């Protein structure tokens, strides 16, 4: 999973989040820094009961937040979402003894971005693209 620091960097670089079901996010600075949330139509949990395991569909949770502004959240994009954001620049993802390396091609130049995980390597490449787009005066790509 993408770390909070890299997710904050992506947001600061101008990555725009258009929330979709299944997206992961965090709510920093509200005593929820260590919690990850997932957008869903309803909360679904597996419960262990004496008669066996059941899937419970819960309409509310005990500590429910009324709402939170999207600007107060940090999107934690998944590996597939990060790869999608790289678009046509993406060339490959390799793994070696030191970790992962995402390769992109930008303006005829091949660039490699290392990371401890695939998500971190993709995020490093995306940060580079967002920086290049910002330098060109282009808006960040919404998802």
Q: How does the SSE layout of this entry go?
A:
Layout: H1 4-12, E1 24-26, E2 37-38, E3 43-49, E4 52-58, E5 74-75, H2 79-86, E6 90-96, E7 99-106, E8 109-115, H3 118-135
Antiparallel strand pairs: 1-2, 1-5, 3-4, 6-7, 7-8
Report on this structure.
The longest helix has 18 residues, at 118-135. Helix 1 runs parallel beside helix 3 and helix 2 runs parallel beside helix 3. Mean pLDDT is 83; it is low at 139-143. The strands form 3 sheets. Strands 2-1-5 form a 3-stranded antiparallel sheet. It has a 3-stranded antiparallel sheet with strand order 6-7-8, covered by helices on one side. Strands 3-4 form a two-stranded antiparallel ribbon. The protein has 3 helices and 8 strands. The chain has helices at 4-12, 79-86, 118-135; strands at residues 24-26, 37-38, 43-49, 52-58, 74-75, 90-96, 99-106, 109-115.
Strand-pairing-aware structural class:
alpha+beta
**How many DSSP H or I helices?**
3
Tell me the helix content. Answer: 10-25%
Radius of gyration: 18 Å
Percentage of β-strand residues: 25-35%
Secondary-structure element order, N to C? HEEEEEHEEEH
* Lateral strand order in the biggest sheet: 2-1-5
- The dominant shape is globular
Cα separation of the termini: 18 Å
Largest sheet: 3 strands, antiparallel
Number of separate strands: 8
Mean pLDDT: 83
Low-confidence stretches: 139-143
Protein name: Pilus assembly protein CpaE
Organism: Actinoplanes ianthinogenes
